[in-house]
Amino acid sequence: MNVAVLAHEKFPGRAKTAVGVLRYTDDDVVAVLDRENAGTRTTDHVEDVQDAPVVASMDEIAEDEAVDALVIGIAPIGGGFDESWRADVRTALERGCDVHAGLHYFLEDDEEFAALAAEHDCELWDVRKPPTDLGVADGSAADVDATVVATVGTDCSVGKMTATRELYEAAREAGMDAAFAATGQTGILIEGAGIPVDRVVSDFAAGATERLVVEAAAEHDYVFVEGQASLVHPAYSGVTASIVHGARPDYLVLCHEAGRESVHGYDQDLPPVSSFPERYETFAAPVCDATLAGGMLNTRSTESDADARDAVAEFSETIGAPADDPVRFGPDSVLEVIR
Q1: DSSP E strands: which ranges in 94-166?
Q2: Assuming Cys at both sites, which of 68, 266, 285, 322 could form a disulfide with 294, CB separation 3.0 to 4.6 Å?
Q3: Helix axes of 16-24 and 160-173: crossing angle, nearest 10 degrees
Q4: Contact status, residue 49 vs residue 43, Cβ threshold 8 Å
Q5: In this predicted model, what pLDDT tens digit does every residue of 145-188 receive, in sequence order?
Q6: 2-126: CATH architecture
Q7: Domain ranges in the chain?
Q8: Residue whose C-alpha is closest to residue 242's, from 195, 193, 298
Q9: Would you give the end-to-end CA distance of the chain in angstroms?
Q10: Residue pLDDT, tens place only, 13-42
């Protein structure tokens, strides 16, 4: 499938969904929409992703260029729809493109978009719309035969989805029978399946994660669960709690961004990174004996590989476990612990 990815004024730093799609999707990305960076290419901004032109709007993608879907590759705090995107979504639908969005604002509830989708026989896929038959967790994740690994974070947007995906893909390449359990919009867009835990009624959020783990474990030996948010985030810690308690992981992988000192979106200092291994193991302890397998450090703001390796080594020493930058250097040292 050929897709265009909308990332206006956020690419690449604040468009983690767009970057995730560019890095991991099996689809062909024909263009990224970003008014600020129009005229450049994706690889001018991010390494190790699909190379595609950055354009200002859907109108700049040639009519004879096949585009099957427009993916909204950004999700602002609160998951709202920015009205400045409307023209591009409208154009995509008029061209017969499906539209995929990981917002809390559902496109299928938008009268204009619903009418255009019906007129042009397009699909509106609201990725954050959860199943309607979810229930409370019953502890069944504790009984699975598979090894369950969950990523956790010091904060939001530190690379949990990326770390999970890199571990999963490296495991598969190493011959391990592994599954990827997608719990957020980016992971679901890449995998094509999953449950958006942050959109689930709070009583059922742990049950949603449990369902993902139990279903994946029935078919695979290893289940890598995409983490969300952080236990110390004042807004989103509930999602983290539900994933950890619902998944009942055997191993935890702590994710952090080099240089991150304050909580995303808040004037609040992060606790010491050294406190997080015990914080997460203690939190998980009432339901499972989860052990820290290692850490994943996002060094995107570090220019040289040498400085990045020093940062990873320091992070490893701080958390008392092996660590990697999964994108820059691969996840092998942490994966070896899990094996």
Answers
A1: 98-101, 124-126, 147-153
A2: 322
A3: 10
A4: yes
A5: 999 999 999 999 999 999 999 999 999 999 999 999 999 999 99
A6: 3-Layer(aba) Sandwich (3.40)
A7: 2-126, 140-338
A8: 195
A9: 34
A10: 889 999 999 999 999 999 999 999 999 999
